[in-house]
Amino acid sequence: MNSFSNKPAWTVRLFCLSLMLFPLCAQAHSQEIGSSGWLSGFSHPLEGWDHLLTMLAVGIWAAQLKGNSVWQLPLAFVGVMCLGGLIGAAGLPVWGVEPMILLSGAVFGVLVLRRIRVPAFASISVVMFFAFFHGYAHGQEMPASAGLLSFALGFVSATLLLHGAGIIMVRLVILAFATVFGTSVHAQAVEDDGDSGSDIESETMHLELLPKMVVTERGDSLVGIADSASQGNVGQEQLQYRPIIRPGEILETVPGLIASQHSGEGKSNQFFLRGFNLDHGTDFLTKIDGVPVNLVSHAHGQGWTDINFLIPELIATIHYQKGNYYAENGDFSSAGAADIRYANTLPGHIARFTGGSFDYYRGLSAGSQRLGDGNLLYGGEIVHNGGPWTVGNDYLKFNGVLRYSQEYESSGWSVTAMAYKADWNATDQIPRRAVDSGTIGRFGSLDPTDGGSSRRYSITGEWHRQDEASASKLTVYGIYHELDLYSNFTYFLEDQVRGDQFAQPDRRWTSGLNASHTFFHKIGTFDSDSTIGLQVRNDSIRNGLLLTQARQRWGTVRSDDVRVTNVSPYFENKTRWTSWLRTQLGVRFDGFQFDVSDSNRSENNGTRTDGIVSPKAGIVFGPWADTELYLNGGLGFHSNDARGVNQRVDPASGDTVDEDGNPVNRAVPLVRTYGAEGGLRTTWINGLQSTLSVWWLDIDSELLFEGDAGTTAISRPSRRYGVEWANYYSPTDWLTFDADFSFSKARFRGNDPAGNRIPGAIESVIATGATVHDIYGGFFGGPRLRYFGPRPLVEDNSVRSDSTVLLSAMLGYRFDKTWTVQAEVFNILDRKDSAIDYYYESQLRGEAEPVEDIHFHPVEPVSFRMSVTANF
Fold it and tell me: Which family, according to the similarity comment (predicted)?
């Protein structure tokens, strides 16, 4: 009986001897395959014997270990293999890949030959270690023409098939011998099954879904909570000790994000993140209490994100998510999203006055009090800023918030009203040659009549409830927004007499709702929650592009009535399968209708509809040693301007070709994006939270509607990838350090003689600072350093911007519970850097020909602000 019972093991051993010997002659990886991305990825593990035998060995070893290892080891292998593939495709150097791949064959050969049994943690660790190097080899040899997502799906499919083949091989061998030799083999198999219970522990755990943990500070641990390495939270405590020169810089608390300005203070910021010059918000979704801020089909630019109406003192938390891996985020969210949440109550009442350089003044009053069964929150501010410019900004802002909320044991609701009004003059970017020649100073202007005004009024209603079985939330909102913007970026290029100033008026009503319902349930014995949601939005817009001189209209390029309607249902499931594995799966559908009526060019009238399905997925491994590993992927999109979607002729000339001779084509309504990310989050070192992520993003087209020209600019598919490392360290309860490092690479795909660089694409950001509070009787504050790296300004990289380095600091003292004084200093080093740079053609008065030149907006010189605050 015993002589026959060992037959299956020896058969497997004979087969697996090659796994020990084969590394001596293992082949290099397969050559590039000139076929589809999926087929290339699928073929890669099959054409390299080192990959093929290792994959089979993992399946055989999993089958030998039995129990949960049969599915845990293959999943752990492909999960970490995808992370390695992402790093390999990004071209990041990793040493010792080939030796490790060869070693993996020998190691798994020994494990299978000796039928070595180890605890679950050890077996998974071995598999994950070698999986990284196999994945790196796959990614490093991805054909340039292949899409990352399709290539990855290909090699993951092949790997799982090989794992499965190894598992089935063991089962078939055992079954064959059982059939031939009868009950002796069956008895041994049953005996092994019984032993497996002692060798492989069956882990079960209960997922505590209720009560939900509310994370309000970056200092709070997200291990066990977060779905990716690149999501996080920022709380009021971090904001109040941070020197901020303008409201848009609140978003710079998102690691790697830059909020700059190329015009007057009232204009939307210029944003940069993950290899993007996001313009005014094209691919970064910003929400206030769940209400989207980005404006579709805006007169100046798609995705217009104006957050000048924010009052920093009222912010409770900022929740950010990077990448297109989240089912609740739709349009504009391919690079990321941030949801800024206002508080329902404040600890007391605040009165603050701030004065500073360049005629800066701010008065703030805010607070909350009990009213009836609820709480009334209020906040109001008046701001004036002259700025260092030769033509002063004369920025004047009135801003207010009023919220009434009620909270019960398991439900609550709120109604919020906001009102904002601002007017300003603008010193837009200026050509370097005009400064070098002495025509204007560094803070001068070539058109002193540029500027604008903006109004925003909104009302939002929110209701939520939660019990042991489910949670629901409903938000409805209505917004009226208007903008009058006057700009002149080319001076006398188009009209040598009147100049090139143009106006972009925009009036719109935006209404919408966000509804979600989450079920807390089980899948078998595993804790799970599933969410169904619906988002509906409608924008009724009246905007245009007008020709002006000193803000007086003399011509019309286009004048449009636009309606954009978006309906988006979505579904998401989160399940915890073991103590170290949880998954997130989601899908959303976005349906759009674009309706345009151009009173100036009827040929551009029309209605188009489009829809797109975007699946999302994420896997979390751990925690082990207070560390989690993440793997995320998803499809997303960004919408194009409704006017470009329906455009058939050039709005200025009426021709079917533009000024460069290219045909005027209607833009694709919805452009697909593909994203993937791998990373880790750790709190292993006491007081330190650190996240590391490697990400990838492909876009089918960089097609954009140029509001300044009233037409569509066609561009090529692109690819971006990079590394982000964010750190937050609190060695004591009164001292905090943070340091965030972001490095990106952005390229157009395909070959073009013009070059493959994406103009303005951010490449490197370093942001770091230190904060102290409540020391030596009440001192608080600290320094902050921001490094905004150089960027290509043209496709062939022949012209680049310089880097921007800004050092700022805050120092304050809290005398008692009532009185606080603080000082802020900006650009302490008084550097003469640029806030932003562009390279394009312009013509000054008196110049005979247009000139290509760098156009820049300078950072403000060293300046200070002093604040006195009363809390009562």
Answer: Belongs to the TonB-dependent receptor family.
Token code pair at residue 486: 């006057």
Provide φ and ψ at 796, rounded to 5°: -90, 5
- To the nearest 10 degrees (0 to 180), the angle between helices 49-65 and 97-113 is 40
Residue 458, SS3 per DSSP? strand
Model pLDDT, residue 154: 81
Partnered with residue 165 across adjacent β-strands are none
- Name 680's Cβ contacts closer than 8 Å, sequence gap at least 6: 229, 627, 628, 629, 630, 691, 692, 693
The residue type found at 809 is A
Q: How far apart are CA 109 and CA 104, in angstroms?
A: 8
Record the tokens describing residue 677, joined without a space. 């990310």
Question: What phi and psi values does residue 490 have, to the nearest 5 degrees?
Answer: -115, -5
CA dist 588 and 577 (Å) reads 24
Parallel/antiparallel/unpaired status of strands 258-260 and 374-385? unpaired
Contact 634, 342 (CB under 8 A): no
CATH-assigned architecture of domain 336-871: Beta Barrel (2.40)
For strand 430-431 and strand 470-487, is the pairing parallel, antiparallel, or unpaired? unpaired
Can you tell me the distance from the alpha carbon of 29 to that of 51, in angstroms, rounded to the nearest whole number? 8
How many C-beta atoms lie closer than 10 Å to residue 525's C-beta? Answer: 9
The CA distances from residue 199 to 194, 195, 272, 580, in Å, are 10, 7, 52, 18
Amino acid letter, 1? M
What is this structure's pTM?
Answer: 0.79
User: How far apart are alpha carbons 834 and 859 in whole angstroms?
Assistant: 5
C-alpha distance from residue 216 to each of 221, 315, 784 (Å): 10, 11, 22
Residues in the chain predicted with pLDDT less than 70, given as ranges, are: 1-36, 145, 171-220, 658-660, 703-714
- Please, where in the chain does CATH 2.40.170.20 lie? 336-871
In angstroms, the first-to-last Cα distance of the chain is 88
For residue 107 the two structure tokens come to 């190691």
pLDDT at residue 116, as a whole number: 84
pLDDT at 175: 52
Cis peptide before 623 (omega within 30 of 0): yes
Q: Report residue 59 as tokens.
A: 């399946």
What is the Cβ-side half-sphere exposure of residue 695, based on CA atoms within 13 angstroms? 35
For position 110, what pLDDT does the model report?
A: 85
Q: Residue 526 contacts by C-beta under 8 Å, 6 or more apart in sequence?
A: 207, 575, 576, 577
Q: b/e map of 586-614 (b: 16 or more CB within 10 Å)?
A: bbbebebbbbbbbebbeebebeeebebeb
Task: Please check whether residue 610 is in contact with residue 602, taking contact to mean a CB–CB distance below 8 angstroms.
Answer: no
